[in-house]
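Researcher: Quick one. four chains, 752 residues in total.
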Amino acid sequence: MKHEHAPVPVISKSRLEFLFDGVFAIAMTILVLELKVPELVDQRSIIELARALVHEASTFVSYLISFVVLGVFWYRHNQQYHSYHAVSRGMLVLHFVQLAAAAFFPFCAAIFGRYPTNALSQVVYLGCILVYAWASFANWVVAKRSGSIAAELTEAAYRHSRTRLLRWCLLVSALFAVYLIRTLARLA
Amino acid sequence: MKHEHAPVPVISKSRLEFLFDGVFAIAMTILVLELKVPELVDQRSIIELARALVHEASTFVSYLISFVVLGVFWYRHNQQYHSYHAVSRGMLVLHFVQLAAAAFFPFCAAIFGRYPTNALSQVVYLGCILVYAWASFANWVVAKRSGSIAAELTEAAYRHSRTRLLRWCLLVSALFAVYLIRTLARLA
Amino acid sequence: MKHEHAPVPVISKSRLEFLFDGVFAIAMTILVLELKVPELVDQRSIIELARALVHEASTFVSYLISFVVLGVFWYRHNQQYHSYHAVSRGMLVLHFVQLAAAAFFPFCAAIFGRYPTNALSQVVYLGCILVYAWASFANWVVAKRSGSIAAELTEAAYRHSRTRLLRWCLLVSALFAVYLIRTLARLA
Amino acid sequence: MKHEHAPVPVISKSRLEFLFDGVFAIAMTILVLELKVPELVDQRSIIELARALVHEASTFVSYLISFVVLGVFWYRHNQQYHSYHAVSRGMLVLHFVQLAAAAFFPFCAAIFGRYPTNALSQVVYLGCILVYAWASFANWVVAKRSGSIAAELTEAAYRHSRTRLLRWCLLVSALFAVYLIRTLARLA
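Model:
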């Protein structure tokens, strides 16, 4: 498992970081665009506005959960990225998979917020997290194989992080499987 | 109150700054998405367009106020952030609370702009500012406790800023309380 | 006119630049959100789609003009900003005026694109440019007065730029005045 | 073909890079705004949600293709930009053409995703890519002529990249021509 050879940097580390942070900042901010200003009959009615906002409660909850999910993704990426001294072609492709999942996430959050009790919307939401999680894990492994991990990181530290990432992926996969099976069972 | 120990940096200061500035730039710019192009019957009618724009006047005012609020938030954060030499785990979490409030702010601005005379929309608007303000204050205190404040900043300067932040939080809390009570009183 | 004293930097030059570039990148990109995908009866009809796009022609033109306007604003800011060695409080406030105008610009572009022949939409569009232009000019003068202009810039170069900025402001003001008067005349 | 003279830098390389990355991050993220949350009669119905999502399938595919297209554009720009040691006036203008095309791309992706079988929507989509591709190529040639290419890049490497860019432009042009002719033929 230790084919370390000279890395093939294909992109400046800082520019990819830049694009990554930009996409996350935007995804986190446009989550809110799903929250719609309600139409009130009596503009001054507190009760009517309160009812309209309560009606959107699941979208608010989805907003909060999704913000936390994106925040955790971003934080984890930070820690991984810190250990790379270069970005190889495979890592770049996997970064784009992560970015596509992150940019797609506001749509999943919107569906989940609107139809929280719909089994399929839960599957879509978890599916997006699943793609992101496995791309993160693959990134870490590919980074090691292409020799892009900084020399300061010991083999033990690399393996420790890999185990943690894998555990996270398996957890999300198990959740996804449960929800997928439940959804299919309801259809049968 | 002076448990200074070695800070536990969990994230690069510049990347968090980056995400922060990104979220603020986007929040400030999408405020305008709430302003809708009116539908005119006579496309060339000056009177009709003027009436339609006047009809949206409160949304314009909310846009301006909200832009200033976000600008002041951003500026204050700048000054605080400058004094940190590291970001600890607690500070990171509090930063995410600040970011969630800032990203949520365009929705509050939209509700307030649409229903400026609705007591509840005022409470929502102030509530978002309240969350942001207290998270800022907590960030400052947590930074001190985790030893993340740069050595150049004297104890007196730290306390001075803390007092100023606290005064700001109390002012917003008082305003929020007044509006909340007024809203509840109207319901009773 | 030469009260140069020590500058009072209130903000890191790079962070303000960051926020500025972020707001411009977003404003330039959300201009396109005003272009709506038309609803077609026959999804495969070339003629129907062509007619729908031609119907939006003025919005396309407004998109292009507005993109160029924001590009020129951004470029000019770049050149000005390069000459500052610090940002004083007055300059910060004026930067926020510029940012508010830039963030507001997509709305003006949308109104202008939808009602290009409406005299008032032209006035609104030019009014936004007017605010930006004068804030740019004021920034330059305030920078000089607060001693924030880099020592490398000669007095002659400063005056040359000031004259150019003033000429630009006067041109925009004249255009704005003509359109405003024309609009008022039509009302009378 | 080798009029190398002193370059005329008109803008800081890093700020243009910044604006470029910002516009790309936003364009990539707002692609998703075209995906609409469907309206369901029965909120818990898996079948109904599945049908609604399948109905949007072409928009999902357009999202994925367009994300890849923007990713490839961004990556290619990265490689080109790395070879410049300055940005001349002509290059700045061409960069703005590239940015305008990239910012316009979400609209093309939305039309293409909605009407994938409409010959005109394909032409519009390819037309946007065409403008971007030729502006990239022109940028490379203009960079050489204005002496803005770093000395480290050999003449052979420059020519190699130029050939590759040209081949790409010709491929896109050929595709565009085929689709344009097909569209015109259907009209006749």
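The radius of gyration of chain D is 20 Å.
Researcher: Thanks, that's what I needed.
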